[in-house]
Amino acid sequence: MVWLACSIGAPAAASPARLGPDLPYTWVADPGGEAGPDDMLPALREGAPRQGIFSRGYTRTVFWVRVVLPPEQAADGERWLELKPNFVDDIRLFLRPLGSDGPWRQRRAGDTFDGPIGDIDHRFPLFVLPPDEHGYEMLFRVASSSAVMLQMNVWQPREFLPAAARATTFWSFYFGLATLSALLALVLAVVLRTRLLWSVTGMSAAYVLVACIQGYVAWLIPDIGWRLQHYLTGVLTLSAYGLLLWMASEALQLRRRLPWAHRMLMLACAVTVVLLLSVPLDFYGAAIRFQMLVYLSTCAVFVTACLYVWWRDRFRLSSVLLGLNPLICILASLFGLFTTVGWIAFRQEIYVVWQYALIVNMLVVTGLAVYQVRIKRYRERERLQLARALELEREARFNQRQFMGLVAHEFRTPLAIIAASLQNLRYLGVSDPRQLSRYDKIDRATDRLVQLTDNCLADARLDADDLWLDRRRLCLLELVTEAASLVGAAGHRWRLTLDGQPPPAGERWTGTAWLDPAMMRIALSNVIDNAVKYGNGGPRVDVSRHADHWSVAIRDQGSGIAEDRVPVIFERYRRAAPAEHNHRRGVGLGLYVSRRIARAHGGDLVLADNGDHGCCFLFTLPLPPEEEASH
Which of 271, 316, 330, 620 has the largest count of CB atoms under 10 Å? Predict the structure, then answer.
């Protein structure tokens, strides 16, 4: 990024005579660095004129450059000679009138030179050339531990002052905006505490690099400014690459989305930290070349990751913006790096793009980061509200179950009294058919309330932490018969089969199961009751024995259950049809309680068949312990 010096910001209205485009030059290398101007002059005069920007990359070789300032450029008044960039270590200017064999006048600049730099106080070396009707012959000796580059501008004083004022205005605006964006990123990083905003804050160090290259550090700190600027330029150039990769990784959330890509980028950042030792140890050029290889590979990784993330996000605008801005900065810095090592021709537009992209990138990333944090906090608030609502719902459900259990318990005694009184009334004998009909209605209503209270009590008991089952060895056939007798539908006819065949008449069936009779009676009666309510005829109950369990299949002759309701029929307070379309009695506890009871015994209850011909619910129940052990 040291090549950023070549951009001066806003274009000036008047243009100086520039080295290369306006003033052709010749150059030769001086590998030993011991030659003087007279030693190199013959070779320089014989060289082919060049008009491009003089840039030789990172090398310790000393170069000599010869340029002629013609009489028409020097005869009508003094000229001001401006030299760039600031990061070149040593620039020595030798000049004399064109065509003269007299002694050379020497001037010196460079960020390692301790003497006065320039004739005029300016952020770039600025030398005054007196008017001369013959023009000037100038030789430059250029040596640097960083990129070897030379720019020379020959100004008329009346043109330089307005141009310098415009450039100062531009850079004042630029650094003002940079300071605001950096402070904004820092404040938001402290408040919101996100890695993305911390990476943006770290990336603001690149603004200090721009200030060094534009000469503001040395200009504002006269005593130690040039040496400080020299070391800061090297340190920040190396750091800026790593900080840019860190910000790029955080912008695309590669830590979460592509961990392998994030690890590679962080490894490149760690390499950058190690390479910072090259500045005091004086192998900065080698470090830059090594970093370029690392940067090339990590740039390829980032571009691949960027395309992948965009594709996964279906090119959502926020995702594209978060990846596009770091991508532009990376590509611009990559092309700039190629120019400083001499791989491609120097183009000033690249550095202008990088300067503006840096601020735009920081502002866009900061804005999107704040937006993402806002969305994240909004979702977190929604999650907390939902969690609170769920907690309130759990408390309400618990209180509801407690209340229903209490009510059901209190109903048991009155219902028992009603049932006993009704039985006594039947014993007295009644001949009036209408009164018998009323007795039957009271009997069915009482049975229904008993079943409902049994379900509520069973639900509360099943939710208890210390659930205990009073298991006994019992005849499963008798238990099924008792459960069917509890169903209070008038006139229903149910059929019982054993392994698909009618039970043998006059014989006592000896098949036993290991169950809690009270709980299991509730479970069976609930399913049989549903088969009566939703079927068009009496239910069929088939009991069969298998190697390690009993099966009780209860089949109705109804129209089946809608497919979209099948997943919810075993949930508490959910029914086979929505409440607004279901006019049959019930609260949605039957199947839920029955399955919980079956599973508490180590068995299960499932919907084994469902269709237009009806449903079949299947219980699996355990054998007695000694019979299970024998299998």
Answer: 330
